[in-house]
Amino acid sequence: MIKFKNYYEILGVTPDSSNAEIKSAYRRLARKYHPDVNPNTAEMFKDITEAYTTLINPEKRKQYNILNGFFETPKTKTTSQKAEQEYKEKTTTPPNREQNIKSSFEKKKDYSEKVFSDTINGIFKEFTKKEQKQQKQPKPEPKNGADITVDITVGIAEALKGTSRTVNVLHTELCPKCKGRKFINGAKCSDCKGTGEKSEYRKITVKIPAKIKNGSKLRLKGEGNHGQNGGKNGDLYINVKIEGNSKVKYDGLNILYNVPITPFEAVLGGDIEVKTLEGNIKLKLPKHTQSGQKFRLSGMGVTQKNKSGDIIITVHIEIPQSLSDDEIKLYEKLKKLSSHNIRENLLND
Ligand SMILES: [Zn+2]
Hints:
By secondary structure, the chain is α+β, with helices and mostly antiparallel strands. It has helices at 7-11, 19-33, 42-55, 58-68, 73-76, 79-92, 97-100, 104-108, 118-135, 156-161, 263-268, 325-337; strands spanning 148-155, 163-174, 183-184, 187-188, 197-208, 216-220, 236-243, 248-251, 254-261, 270-276, 279-285, 294-297, 303-304, 307-308, 311-317.
């Protein structure tokens, strides 16, 4: 019968320890118990090496954990995340950390520290090579994060000039407590309840480019939900709706204006000046312009992907609110002079 050995205890680490921590523990123990350093601890060093070679290999560690009931199965699925994390930790593990963890051997006995021999150095190099190879082995399926879509509405003036909006987006991120590992010291992370993810609101400022088309979709790459096991983050899509007013509207790439003209401008025609969001425009009215007549200014609308829309001006005759006595007299004179019956053909085609 094979005797059960607690490899974690032998190395003085925990089932949650990273590869970097295991390696660090092994180095520390080897410095003390390698037979070259201390001939009395050969058996002990055999166990230490056995524990190390098992725990440093993700596949062997998984097998060992399952056989000895160290983790629940979901834990082992995060091996790739761990490997990635450990890679970062290699340089950042605080040196005092290893001093806090005492191996079972150290608790029982006290051996004097000796010089780190060349032989051991050689062993470490070999292990490091093996370990790097093992970390490249196939890992759980990467899962891409989902895209998120948000609708925003902007005014027509903002849309033409360009603006920005801050949106509050609910999205999933790696759990900040367990960093997506799901478990802490063998127990489910209390923050994310073992899912490795947390949903939270995040404020994102979106720049809306000038002359954006109504119904445009802006894409913010990687701002969607968090990917798992090295999968890509989703994207954030912003649907832009442009709200017009009674004077200005958007229609695809065209900008539509409703412009009032006076009765005499309508009759006499001539140049009029129209204030638009893109500056003043001169419009040439023909004689006898009718209310509702449309004028197209080609290519002056919104430009997108080498396509340009038009400005379309619809004029309508508007009577000024206040008229002077002289103006009234002129209208009266005009009324007497006019012989035309404008409603003559009302029922005819
Ligand atoms: Zn967590």
